[in-house]
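#struct-help
A.M.: can someone run this one for me? Single chain, 666 residues.
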Amino acid sequence: MCGFAGFIDARAATERAALEAAARQMTQAVWHRGPDDGGVWADPKAGIAIGHRRLSILDLSIAGHQPMLSPTGRFVIAYNGEIYNCEELRQNLLRDNPNVRFRGHSDTEIILAAFEQWGLESSLQRMNGMFAFALWDQEDRALTLARDRFGEKPLYFGWSAQNYFLFGSELKALRAHWAFDAEIDRDALALYMRFNSIPAPESIYKKIQKLPPACILRYSDRKVEIKSYWSLHACVQRAISKPFRGSAQEAATQLDHLLRDAIKLRMNADVPLGAFLSGGIDSSLLVALMQAQSTKPVRTFTIGFYDPAYDEAHHARFIAHHLQTEHTELYVTPDQAMDVVSSLPEVYDEPFADSSQIPTLLVSRLTRQHVTVSLSGDGGDEIFGGYNRYTWGGRLWRHFSRVPHWMRRALSTGATAIGPQIWDAVFDRTGPVLPRNWRQRMPGYKLHKLADLLRSTSALDMYGRMTSHWLNPELVVLGVEAPSPRHAASEDWLTTQDFESQAMYLDTMTYLPDDILVKLDRATMSVGLEGRVPYLDARVLEFAWSLPQNMKVRPNEGKWLLRQVLYQYVPRQLVERPKMGFGIPVDSWLRGPMREWAEGLLDPHRLQQDGFLNTQAVRQKWDDHLAGRGVWQYQLWGVLMFQLWLKHQKWTPGFQQTPAAVQVGA
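D.P.: on it. Structure tokens below:
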């Protein structure tokens, strides 16, 4: 795992020394992604410079140094990621051309040889891995940027000062270039307020974009073209058209085989390796299959909280004991979490407000003290139907649609008239007599969320409400119009009509790359830890989508088939419990240990002076939250993370705040 950055001076008017110095400065900004080695390459005649920082995982020798030239010298690459089937590719290359020679055994060499022998797109189709890279073709004088199928590895690009085309693994690398023009994009800010992350291809800055997953960008003579080399939509539709016809037991056996192989490929490393273990279905099965293929105890790591409503560490401990892993855990106090918060703008680079960013960063720091690579259970929910909205969303809409909309709106108003804290108290007192699946964490919040869903006008509108935080961000962000939902384009929908499949697909296309994988990559790489995600093996995804829906989602039970596989390794009673998620008690912390910090960022004078957010709307939500009149902790966390990021940006060289925009809507 690594980081890279570079730029093209379209005028080709920069001398070699200046090109190399600028590229070195850009890559120094992502030093944390690659603390083991670094290098730069430049061609003043083409006006291009590429820099690289290396985290050595495979082939720790100098043979893996980057930027790396292909055997013929045609291609120069700076690459971030891992190609898990690189040995298979090596053998195929030698079969097709016995004269191929390799200096070492890094996957970077394999990639370059593949490009020369099979061409770019054909090679990408053969790769099983996570990656982002910059490839300069000295013959065609063209730059190619590419990103893996699911967007596990990040890649930003854009123009600055008209003549400079910048690219890199993180925004901070682009900001380090002297010509970077940092003007905040209010439309992107509105999207952020709705989703708590900024969806690709947007970034928080105008003129700077994210390359979408599974895409290739080609730059030549100031022209930029982007196309996809793989389609999630086509892959899913293909799998649906060829449904799995076997029994449930046969499906479990085949899934066990596929996951074992995906995990085995991702256990290949020349450095110490472990896994995140929460005690949930995904991570427990991941660790079980790792341990089944390991000759020594697997290293596992977890974070715990002293608030029992959010603590899963004891569940992870039971799983670790049963599987006989070498387990390490850390219990986190609000003060420790607060210490992490101040570093979030530097870690995430642009506003990002999934509150599980805090435990993810903490467990990454803990894990990096012991290993250099960690496997993670991310992706299991989206692919195998783990989120609560899959298990009850479809049934909910079928019931809702039978009730007139005006009546549902009235019921919604009545339910939200009672504050979430009162609902929490009611559920606390009645908990012992409630059905098991009604015993939820944060019942008041969930009841208010359910009340909002009553206002839905269609199944897709309900999905949009489920996945939105500020449902109308144009009311909180000054000077913008209502942004289109990420799922609004009908050409992106599946042909299937059931809500569960549509929601799982949309989440895989949007929430997974824009939130989950951003969170994992930035948290792990901030400490030089490589995170690997076996559930995002394309073979696993295609098999999952070939399964009948009832092998994934059943009434009140998600990830059904994953559970059947897990029960072969772990007793059912150790994992059967309501889904918790990897969160923190934001609601109570904002009223308690984080209140003074939040008050400072939400100060009315500060909000007005910054000129981005509607002061009255923000303060109303804050006052309601403190008084227990509403469930606004996640909306407020989004505001707080933007305000904290903005505070950090004001001290960043090159930052600009357009004066004319400050007063818009005031």
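A.M.: thanks! The CA atoms of residues 185 and 385 lie 34 Å apart.
D.P.: also worth noting: The longest helix spans residues 248-266.
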